[in-house]
Amino acid sequence: MRYLIKFSYDGTDFNGYQKQPMKRCIESELEKALYSINNHRVTKVVGAGRTDRGVHALCQCAHFDIDVNITLYKLKCALNSLLPNDIHVFETQLVDENFHARFCVKEKTYKYVINCGEYSPIERNYVYQYCKKLDVDKMKIAIKDFIGIHNFKSFVSEEAVKENYEREIYDAYIEEIGDKVVFVFRGSGFMKYQVRNMVGTLFKIGRGKLKEDGIRKIFADEKRKKDVMTIKSEGLYLADVVY
Question: Over the stretch 101-115, which tens digit does the pLDDT of each residue have?
Fold first, then answer.
C-alpha cells in the first residue's frame, strides 16, 4: 500500500534532504525508520522535493510503499518513535498507487526570514542574522517582478542542469514582523538555490547594491547573472506543499 506523510524538520544538523553516503540526511533517516516498520525490508521514500543543507521544513511531504497491516495513527506513532527528534511526522494518509509525491505537486510555498534587529544567538540557525536596516519598501516593489511565468535560469545553481528553466510564481510578497523581514514565494515548483538566489537579489536591492529594476534586467539578459546573490540557507523554510 502507498502512504503519504507530511512532516517537519530542523535542517540545522542535516546535509540536506537527499541521502548521501556517510552523511546525515532527511531521506536516509526516514528510510531507516521504515526499514524497522516494514519487517526489515528496504523502503524507498520519494519526497516532494529536496532541500539544501541547513534548510528547514514546516511542511515537507513524501510517499512510500509498505506491506504491513497498520493503521494511519500507529504508522505516525511508529515513525515518530524511530525518527530523531529533529524530524516529526504530523500527518499520514493512504493514497492511490499512482500518486507521486513529487510529480503530483500543484504548488509549493517557501519562506525566508531575515533579522534586521539585534543579533539573536538563539535564532542564529533559523533566521539570517543581518542585524542592519534594509530598504523594505524597495524590496516590496521589486519582489512583484518575480510573479508570473519566467525563465529562471539566471536564478538557479550551475549544478542544476535542466531542459526547461521555466517556472510560474503565483504570488510573492514581503511581511514585516517586528524586526524581521519575511519573504514569501508561492509557485508551481522551485529549482536548486532558486529561492535563495531570489531572496539574495532582493537583499542586494534592500542594501542599495542593486537598483529596483534589477530583477527585470536579469530576466531580460542572462549576462546579468553576476547581479544574482545566493543568500545563506539558515533563514529558508519549505512552508507548504499542495496536491
Answer: 999 999 999 999 999
Among all chains, which residue has been given the C-alpha cell 552523511? 23
* Set of cell numbers at residue 21: 553516503
Helix (H) or strand (E) holding 168: strand 166-177
Residues 168 and 150: their CA atoms lie apart, in Å, by 6
Quick: pLDDT tens for 188-229: 999 999 999 999 999 999 999 999 999 999 999 888 889 999
Domain range 107-242, CATH class: alpha beta
The DSSP call for residue 229 is -
The region that residue 208 occupies, defined by phi over 0 for left and psi between -120 and 50 for alpha, beta otherwise, is left
170 Cβ partners below 8 Å, 6+ apart?
A: 107, 147, 186, 187, 188
The phi, psi pair for 44, rounded to 5°, reads -80, 130
Q: Is the pTM of this model over 0.70?
A: yes
Report pLDDT digits (tens) over 125-161.
Answer: 999 999 999 999 999 999 999 999 999 999 998 776 7
Give catalytic residue positions.
52
pLDDT for 35 equals 96
Give the right CATH number for 2-95 from 3.30.70.580, 3.40.50.300, 1.10.940.10, 3.60.15.10. Answer: 3.30.70.580
As a whole number of angstroms, the distance between CA 72 and CA 92 comes to 6
Q: Enter the C-alpha cell of residue 200.
A: 539574495
